[in-house]
């Protein structure tokens, strides 16, 4: 009977919907059954127990089978879409829910979906079999079977083994099929000779478009022009993470300083040509695939040093005028590199689309996973941002494994100067750095006038940094000064922070700057190591007080350094501040000696210091350094590590010094840094070249090792050698005075400024450096 009420109309619509869904499901199901039974003649099982939907490897009527499979797959898709759209019309309808549940057998939709997946898999298999069949037919028709015999060529000894591997494993990664591999020996040989390089080129193939030939084509470079507008860079960085928001805020805050620095450097360089490079920046530690533990901690007192450095690297490269692509995910990385689909077993083809790639250890691991063999082929283009440094003994995979230097990091067999550090603590590596805000004259005067003489700020944003062992020296500090903290907390004051400390909570960067401009003292607890905050404090007119470590911290005695690819010993919380800045701006004392600590506090209160920032940590200093690396480190540190063979006297004494220099009448090979900067010294027993060069006012330069790794250098230093061997050891070149034994380096990847031995004296390639810019020699710019 007709029900005129609104509820009756709804009931009618629901009944109609239910009827339509029953009809569609029924027609679809019985159509599917009809198709499967009527097409039974086209598919037969291999055994009586096989499923009627399992296709046999022998295909009858290839094109017909392919068409049938497509029809079945299309019909299943239509049925599922129609059922899905109907169910969405009124999911809340009780009558429809009741009707459809009475009609549908248990799991009907799931069964149809499973059948659809089987059909889809069958279609893929049919396609593979048809391709293989066509290749076989073509081989028989064209008589090319002999052309695909496995070559035995001494120049390609791995070819037969690689073909055997492909026969067994070519289906293990879809990238092989992407490059045309279909299971035939011909396809294996084409792939192994044209995509990879394990087999000789096939004479019957067109050799004019091979990837390795395209790699050699010269590229026309545009000139790089300085940029002061950072809006394009900010857009490229993107958003969605607090870490990226932090980096963008930093870039905006320092934008005017970057613009001023660009103008100064442009004037300094004059009209000098600068190549514009295509550069990929892949920030691996911020990708979801690496875990990205940093982003959630940005607003909770977590470490910011890495994000500070990456923000400044991005800005420096952009301001210098280079063409950047920025990747914050593995998907972006794959897209920018042109990685073939699959699991990373296949190399890239064609030229690498970038001149340089800046990444970190996480990114390097991701590149290895997705670039396959191409990583080794293109590794000279890579620069690794590495906070704590990687020494050559840890970088050389085989040597590290055999001699106990293998760690979770390192072992990448790069040239040591491809690793770029936050501070210049490892001369074997390149010093990348970061920037601190530079004050103008007016700001410096204002700071001097408004300093609070008895105000101290503690370097420790996390409550855990205040635990255990801090009470005694904090009590002494409290007797003389008002103590302030910036410790993160959510609802209540952290119990680890003493009651007399005025805790401001975690402050935004500009508010922290204001606090530092008032404070007289910035005091470290011993951790974190080598962060940017002490430089920012000194730049704002604070004195930085830090603990001396006795014995020094290293991977041998401290958990933080264990597993890092360095044997470096750290004698204080911030070695750069101690060594390169020093008193009166930086004081390093033994916190366990209460008298020494108290005396330091009194001295600080009496002292008056000006804000100070080393030139190498200004925007101009970083631009100058990065510019020099990009224009000059194209091949020397990355790809060209050949040993030098020489004859004749190369070195002469440097006036008023024990060092030797390159002889002026000898034509110097092209090198960067130039050989005019070289100072050849011999260390003492047990002394590294880092120490030997540092004690004479120079710095060790690993790029110069190849010029002193010869008998002429030993003769110049008047070393008595009964035996001169060539070996693989990270302390070579070196000599023993007692034994009259001398050793030269056989593997250039092991040239090491850091190596030392109690039995040997090292040959050390020192160099001069520019004032305030330790990374560059006097003639380097």
What can you see in these coordinates?
The chain is α/β, with parallel strands linked by helices and 781 residues long. Helices cover 39% and strands 11% of the residues. The strands form 4 sheets. Strands 7, 8, 9, 10, 11, 12 and 13 form a 7-stranded mixed beta sheet that branches. Strand 14 (651-653) and strand 15 (660-662) form a beta hairpin. Helix 11 (255-269) packs across helix 24. It is globular and about 90 Å long.
Question: So how many helices?
Answer: 27
- pLDDT < 50 runs, ≥5 residues: 1-25, 27-66, 86-106, 132-144, 212-218
Number of folding domains?
Answer: 4
Structural class: alpha/beta
Estimate the strand proportion: 5-15%
User: Helical percent range?
Assistant: 25-40%
Per-chain topology:
Blueprint: H1 6-38, H2 62-89, H3 94-103, H4 108-142, H5 159-169, H6 174-178, H7 185-194, H8 211-214, H9 231-237, H10 242-253, H11 255-269, E1 278-282, H12 305-319, E2 323-327, H13 330-337, E3 356-359, H14 361-371, H15 374-378, E4 382-385, H16 392-395, H17 397-403, E5 419-421, E6 430-431, H18 441-450, E7 455-459, H19 471-480, E8 482-485, E9 502-503, H20 509-518, E10 521-524, H21 533-539, E11 543-553, E12 570-572, H22 575-581, E13 586-589, H23 594-606, H24 619-632, E14 651-653, E15 660-662, E16 678-682, H25 689-695, E17 699-700, H26 705-708, H27 711-716, E18 723-727, E19 734-736, E20 741-745, E21 761-767
Parallel strand pairs: 1-2, 1-3, 3-4, 4-5, 5-6, 7-8, 7-10, 8-9, 10-11, 11-13, 18-20
Antiparallel strand pairs: 11-12, 14-15, 16-21, 17-21, 19-20, 19-21
Helix pairs in contact: 1-2, 1-3, 2-4, 5-7, 10-12, 11-24, 13-14, 19-23
Transmembrane segments: 22-43
Enzyme class: transferase
Keywords: Glycoprotein, Glycosyltransferase, Golgi apparatus, Membrane, Signal-anchor, Transferase, Transmembrane, Transmembrane helix
